[in-house]
């Protein structure tokens, strides 16, 4: 679309921001990336997301779109002529949205618990995290992507988590691949896509960020 303005308000290394970057890359959309400092939020962020005051925010021709999954769906609808992320079949689309929502509701609390807690609480978080991943692994089955042969919404929703696996494993002293080999194989397959490899944060940089957060929150 000629003459359009696309801006992404993001923060490093937010998994939710990575989703949007992947979707924009899949569509070949050129955009301006503005990294936010959440300890000193910009006036633009406060203006564009006055309710939650959080990233990511996609600003398309001056209008804000909020919440990562909603943004990804918006991107898919606006730039619909290339690499569709949602199935055209209504039932398959509903199923994809269910699993994307499942990821949002179930994955991130135990994931945070792995690095933000210790002792019995951390062990419980690790157990719950692996249980959730096994459910997702069951849904993936033998398919290359969650949607079958096509990279889509559920893949976009989940793959940013892979960039945090090293941090989870190091903080929690466990190995995800030994318990969820098919899911890790799926992640490595997704990483072969330029849209993914260029959008995900470096795992060691993510770990450095986690160490900073642990220190900031007094978790040792």
TrEMBL record:
Recorded superkingdom: Eukaryota
GO BP field: glutathione metabolic process
Domain named GST N-terminal: residues: 4-83
Enzyme nomenclature, EC number: 2.5.1.18
Transmembrane region(s): none
Catalysed reaction, written as an equation: RX + glutathione = an S-substituted glutathione + a halide anion + H(+)
InterPro entries referenced in this protein's UniProt entry, alphabetically: Glutathione-S-Trfase_C-like, Glutathione-S-Trfase_C_sf, Glutathione_S-Trfase, Glutathione_S-Trfase_N, GST_C, GST_C_Tau, Omega/Tau-like, Thioredoxin-like_sf
A single Gene Ontology CC term: cytoplasm
Keyword terms: Transferase
Every GST C-terminal domain range: 89-217
Gene Ontology molecular-function annotations: glutathione transferase activity
Family of the protein in this entry: Belongs to the GST superfamily.
Name used for this protein in its record: glutathione transferase
Annotated gene: LOC113702351
